[in-house]
Every structure is written in C-alpha cells, then in structure tokens.
Amino acid sequence: MCEKVETWLPHTYRRKDMYGVFDFHAITPEGETYYIQTTERSCHAARRKKVLAWPGLARLLLLSTNHIEVWSWRKRDWDLRREEILSSSVPTALERSALQKQIATQRGSTVVPSSTSPILRGARRRAARKTSPDS
Asked: For 6-37, what is each residue's pLDDT tens digit?
C-alpha cells in the first residue's frame, strides 16, 4: 500500500512534503514502512542531503522496521535508481556540528546552531552583517 504524501499548496504555489522531506509513504504486507523521496536523476545527491539534513528525524524513523529511500529517475529510459539511507550514514549531532563548523570556516562565516529556528538564524545573520567591520 502506497500513498502520495506530498501536497500542492495553491495559495503559495509550492509543494509540501511529509515531515518536510518525503513524497511517498508505503507499507508492505510484512509491516515494513518505507519513506520515499523522489526526484530526477540529476538531483539525486541534493535529495539525499535533504534527507540527511534532518538527522534526528532520520534516526527516529529508522528505529524500527522503517526504511528511508531516495528514488531518482532518468526520463530518457525511465531508469530507476534506488538508494536506501542506512542509520550508519545518518550523521550524529556532533558530526553534523563539526561539518557545519568546517564549512563555515572555509566560507569565512560564523556557525549558527542548527537547533535554532530558521527565523532566528536569519535574524542572527542580519545582526552579524550590521555589526561586521566590512559595512
């Protein structure tokens, strides 16, 4: 049994995914549950990063008989690529924090904790720009 869980929001002209990540939710007769992110082949890596950007959600879903997969299609011959996201590939909070610091150092910017809301992150970025010596 499979259900499309991505919805179209006409007033915003955007799509909303289940938990902000998944397009389909499927349950097998054996009771296994699949959370599936679908995309075109050229965006496969970006969708994998999208799933891994929420490590708490991914770890929670992978606790029991749940599976997370990224499916990508090549339209030319409708070739399907399926990649299962394993719990071992989901970064821990410490690994994610270290990676964020490394990326921020390379960019020359500051790191904003991922636990804060996007609104607060945006406000902190704007405040940092106002107080930067470059302005």
From this structure: 888 888 888 888 888 889 989 989 888 899 99
- Alpha-carbon span 16 to 6, nearest angstrom: 6
Give the list of residues 6+ apart from residue 75 with CB closer than 8 angstroms, or none. Answer: 40
Dist CA 56 CA 63 (whole Å): 11
- Domains contained in the chain, number: 2
pTM above 0.70, yes or no: no
**134 shares a domain with 77:** no
Domain interval for residue 128: 91-135
If asked whether residues 79 and 128 sit together in one domain, one would say no
Q: Do 69 and 36 contact (CB within 8 A), yes or no?
A: yes
